[in-house]
Amino acid sequence: MKQFAVIGNPIAHSISPDLHNYVYNSLGIEANYEKLKIQINEIPSIIDDLKNGVLSGINVTIPHKENVIEYLDEINPRAKTIGAVNVIHKNGNKLFGNNTDWFGFNMSLKKNEIDVSGKEVIVLGAGGTSKSILFALKQTGVKKIILLNRTLQKAEELQDEIVFPNSLDDSVQMIKNDSIIINTTPIGMQSEQCPIELGLLHENQTLIDVIYTPMETVFLKFGKKIGAKTLNGLDMFIYQGLTSMDLWFGEDISKQVNFTQLKTYLGNKLC
Ligand code: NAP
Question: Do the beta carbons of residue 244 and residue 57 sit within 8 Å?
């Protein structure tokens, strides 16, 4: 039986084992997936487990997406550009790092018929997930990204010809009645808070949150109430997981899965 895992710290909240074990069971794949709380000094021992076959592949979450990079033989060029690895797979004796968060995000846009190509998009937050989202948006051909962050300097580090950094405090000047706004901050996860003033939300906006616990943050709940189009992070999460499986098993597992049934199963776990 193949063994997979997600490593991170904290990890208790992760529903990755639910996603992966559901797919293994429904497709009759002999595999198991667990979550492992790992400190930074324990990464070498996880790498050994991958090398000697105790583990067949891993997902990586906060705070190790950058920490694992130095232990890997090859990094996918896209993951290198993003600067973060969320999945490791093995080919022969070599360990490969990849990033499926950006792809998961773009798949979720596609599934929900949100077209951002040629448009201006507002991104809240300039942390690890924001880097994947910025990369994803650039792949879709967005025209301009206004990056609002509490610490302006961190947003400025991500500035380029498409990305325009500003302070989160300037959101009043930046947000329009028809903006596409993507929240990549954790605000709303553990509190009834919104990353921007509720008064800036409007029915003609598209509001996307990468958070999926809770399924509806205040940002999305209020937006939905006033008629805006809203999308949470669950589809992104599912797609990054399915794409990880495709890398591990070298086949299109994702195409064999009933997405709706899987989403319902996970949605029930999150309620
Ligand atoms: P991170 O690297 O710690 O970055 C957090 C960002 O949020 C930073 O820009 C930080 O600003 C900002 N922020 C945090 N608290 C704030 C506050 N109270 N007020 C204003 N700004 C604040 O975190 P991350 O790894 O990117 O994770 C962000 C979220 O994405 C988490 O909720 C995570 O669960 C979610 N996520 C979802 C998926 C999915 O598949 N749906 C995948 C990955 C992550 P400063 O720079 O000023 O500190």
Answer: yes
105 lines ligand 1 (CB under 6 A): no
Using 50, 70 and 90 to split pLDDT, how confident is the model at 271? confident
From 35, 37, 51, 65, active-site residue: 65
Q: Supply 82's token pair.
A: 């993003």
Ramachandran region of residue 24, left (φ > 0), alpha (ψ -120 to 50) or beta? alpha
CB 58 within 8 A of CB 95: no
65 classed as catalytic = yes
State what percent of residues in the chain have pLDDT above 70.
Answer: 100
Number of H helices, E strands in the chain: 11, 12
Report which of 201, 142, 204 is spatially closest to residue 178, judged by C-alpha positions. 204
Burial of residue 106, with CB atoms counted within 10 A of its CB: 0-12 exposed, 13-18 middle, 19 or more buried: buried
Distances (CA, A) of 14 to 1, 34, 231: 22, 10, 20
Give me the chain's average pLDDT, please. 97
Average pLDDT over residues 70-95: 96
pLDDT for the residue 247? 97
Protein residue whose Cα sits closest to atom 32 of ligand 1: 186
Name the residue among 216, 246, 259 with its Cα closest to residue 22. Answer: 259
